[in-house]
Design a protein that fits this description.
Layout lengths: L8 H9 L5 H7 L7 H9 L1 E4 L4 H9 L11 E5 L1 E2 L2 E2 L2 H13 L7 E8 L5 H9 L6 E8 L3 H8 L7 E5 L24 E4 L4 H9 L9 E7 L1 H14 L5 E6 L7 H8 L5
Parallel strand pairs: 1-2, 2-5, 5-6, 6-7, 7-8, 8-9, 9-10
Antiparallel strand pairs: 3-4
Helix pairs in contact: 2-3, 4-5, 5-6, 8-9, 9-10
């Protein structure tokens, strides 16, 4: 009698882990047997980068009744960039395919790149901001807003956020509503804030009007300019010893320049 030996699942996972960089072999592993499928799908689809060149095909794959990838995607990037230029077709795709992206219930990290936020339809924004309920990390790169409030709506939409990173952002209207309701506040789970090239002062002023003011332990400020130092100083004084990490840089170190102004407004001696 022939005895069939079953390989323990943890050994299967370890073997497949060694193949993480070989996409062709991973695809083959996915059709060996059911036990090999989860590990191979995890490495193939853990990180998904969507742009106008691949979104239609991915949407078809995701919506197939035989699809097994939805729960494997943990990092999702949505970018409106094709070879260095913007393309409006992505917005059209989002209107038709956002319902399928909502099936990606395991996404923990979301990056939105190269968007003109006002050109995304309200219905599409609503679905996007109501999906990904276990999101831990949000990155916004190269997104243009009409108002600061549009940015804040995104930052407050995900109740379990632990890290927010923004860079190369812009808005015309810096006004905002007071964050009185829980839906208009930063999540209490947030511990890291990275502010790259943007109007840092506007975001920090909004944070400072919270009641209570949120304590964010890790602050990364990128390059600091004089117009932002007052708001930075106010928040650092509030944090005091609760601040664990502070990272920043200056475009110049001349006397009376950005570094000198920062030292006047910001006490980092806690």
């Amino acid at each position: 009698m022939t005895t069939v030996t079953t390989i323990p699942q943890e050994l299967v996972d370890t073997i497949v882990d060694y193949l993480h960089a070989d996409l062709h072999v991973l695809a083959t592993c996915g059709i060996v047997c059911r036990a090999w499928l989860p590990s191979s799908r995890y490495h193939l689809f853990q990180c998904v980068f969507l742009n106008p060149q691949n979104t239609s095909k991915f949407s078809e794959l995701l919506s197939s009744p035989c699809s097994t990838i939805a729960t494997s995607v943990q990092f999702l990037e949505i970018s409106n960039e094709v070879i260095g230029r913007q393309n409006q077709s992505l917005y059209q795709w989002l209107e038709h395919s956002m319902i399928h992206l909502a099936d990606l219930t395991a996404v923990k990290s979301l990056r939105i790149r190269n968007m003109v936020w006002s050109e995304v339809k309200p219905e599409t924004k609503s679905i996007l901001l109501c999906s990904f309920r276990i999101l831990r990390e949000l990155e916004l790169w190269g997104v243009d807003f009409k108002t600061l409030t549009q940015l804040l709506d995104i930052a407050c939409a995900f109740p379990s956020l632990e890290r927010i990173s923004v860079d190369d952002l812009g808005w015309v209207d810096p006004s905002f509503e007071s964050p009185r309701s829980p839906e208009r506040r930063l999540p209490s789970t947030l511990h890291t804030l990275h502010l790259g090239y943007c109007y840092k002062r506007d975001i920090l002023h909004w944070i400072l009007v919270h009641h209570p003011v949120p304590i964010i332990h890790h602050i990364h400020l990128g390059t600091v300019y004089q117009k932002d130092t007052n708001a930075i100083g106010q928040y650092l004084r509030f944090l005091g010893s609760a601040l664990h990490t502070l990272r920043l840089g200056f475009s110049d170190l001349d006397a009376g320049g950005d570094a000198g102004t920062f030292l006047i407004h910001c006490n980092v001696g806690y």
